[in-house]
C-alpha cells in the first residue's frame, strides 16, 4: 500500500518522517521528491489555449481606444485634424497601457515572490495496510497539504 502526501518545504516534513519511522516504517520505504517551480514569465499576448491572466494587451487596448476617441474629438479644433490626432492618441494610449501593466506586474511579482518561493514536496510511503491509518494521521497532524492512499492488488 502507498500513502502519498504533499507539503510545503518546511520542518514539518522532517518531523512527520521521524514520527513515521518511530512507528516502524523503514527508511528505505520512504521517498521524498521536491517539485520544481515553473518560471512564470508574463506573456504579452494570451491565447485561448494558454492564458495566465496577466496579459499586457487588456489595459493597452482600453487606453488606446480612449485616447483615440479623445484625439478624434479634439482633433476637430486642433491643427492636424481628427484622423491624425486619433492615430496619435491610439499610439499614445497603447504605449501608456503597456507601461502601466509592465510596472504593475513588476511590482506584483516582487510582492508575491516571498509567498510563492516555497516549493512543494511530495512524500511517498510504502507501508502495510495496518500502518495506513497511523501514517495518514501523522501526516495530517504535521500540516500536509494533501494525503492520498493507493492499494496495489
Oligomer: single chain
Radius of gyration: 27 Å
Report the portion of residues in β strands. Answer: 15-25%
Q: Give the H and E element order.
A: EHEHHEHE
Fraction in helix: 40-55%
Strand order of the largest sheet: 2-3-1-4
In angstroms, what separates the terminal alpha carbons? 9 Å
- Main β-sheet: number of strands, strand sense, barrel status? 4 strands, antiparallel
**Average of pLDDT:** 84
Low-confidence stretches: none
Predict the CATH topology of the largest domain.
Alpha-Beta Plaits
Number of strands: 4
Shape: rod-shaped
Question: Pairing-aware structural class of the strands and helices?
Answer: alpha+beta
**Overall structural domain count:** 2
InterPro entries: ABC1_TM_sf
Transmembrane segments: 56-77, 83-104
Membrane topology: Multi-pass membrane protein
Main location: membrane
Tell me what you see in this structure.
- With 153 residues, the protein is of the alpha+beta class.
- The chain has two domains: 2-35 and 119-150, 2-Layer Sandwich (Alpha-Beta Plaits); 57-116.
- Helices cover 49% and strands 16% of the residues.
- The protein has helices spanning 11-22, 57-74, 82-116, 132-141; strands at residues 2-8, 30-34, 120-126, 146-150.
- The longest helix is centred in the middle third of the chain and has 35 residues, at 82-116.
- The model has no long low-confidence stretch (mean pLDDT 84).
Amino acid at each position: 500500500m502507498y500513502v502519498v502526501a504533499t507539503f510545503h518545504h518546511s520542518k514539518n516534513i522532517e518531523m512527520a518522517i521521524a514520527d513515521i519511522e518511530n512507528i516502524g516504517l523503514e527508511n528505505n520505504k520512504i521517498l521524498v521528491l521536491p517539485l520544481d517551480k515553473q518560471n512564470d514569465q508574463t506573456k504579452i499576448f494570451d491565447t485561448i489555449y494558454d492564458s495566465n491572466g496577466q496579459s499586457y494587451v487588456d489595459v493597452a487596448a482600453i487606453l488606446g481606444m480612449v485616447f483615440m476617441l479623445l484625439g478624434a474629438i479634439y482633433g476637430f479644433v486642433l491643427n492636424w485634424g481628427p484622423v491624425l490626432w486619433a492615430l496619435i492618441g491610439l499610439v499614445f494610449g497603447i504605449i501608456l497601457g503597456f507601461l502601466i501593466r509592465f510596472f504593475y506586474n513588476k511590482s506584483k511579482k516582487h510582492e508575491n515572490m516571498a509567498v510563492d518561493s516555497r516549493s512543494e514536496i511530495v512524500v511517498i510511503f510504502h507501508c502495510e495496510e495496518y500502518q495506513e491509518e497511523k501514517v495518514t494521521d501523522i501526516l495530517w497532524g504535521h500540516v500536509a497539504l494533501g494525503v492520498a492512499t493507493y492499494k496495489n492488488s
